[in-house]
Amino acid sequence: MNRQQMVGKGRLYFLFFLFFILIAVIAARLFYIQIEKHDYYSQLAEKQHLSKTVLQAKRGKIFFSDEFNLLAANQGMEKIAVAPKEVEDTQKLAEELSLVLKMDKKEILAKISDKSDPWIEIGEIPIEKAKPLYDIKGLHFQSDFKRYYPQEEVAAHVIGFLNKEKVGQYGVEEYYNKELKGLDGFWRGIVDAKGRKILSPFNKIQDPVDGDDLVLTLDFNIQLFIEDKLKEMVKKYGAKGGTIIVSRPKTGEILGIASLSSFSKIQNFNPNEYNLVKKEEMDVFKNPAISIPFESGSIFKPVTMAGALEENVITPQTTYIDKGEVKIGRYIIKNSDLKAHGKKTMTEVLEFSLNTGAVFAQQKLGGAKFTEYVQKFGFGQKTNIDLAGEVTGNIKNILEPLSREKLIEYANASFGQGISITPIQIIQAFSAIANQGQMVKPYIVKKVIHPDETFEETKPAVISQVISSETALRLTAMMVSAVKNGYGKKAGLEGYLIAGKTGTAQVPWAYFGIQKNGYSDKTIQSFINFAPAFNPEFVLFLKMEGQTKGPRFSADSLAPIAKEINQYLFTYFGIPPE
Question: Which of 55, 408, 508, 575 lies 20 to 30 Å (CA to CA) from residue 100?
Answer without folding.
Answer: 55
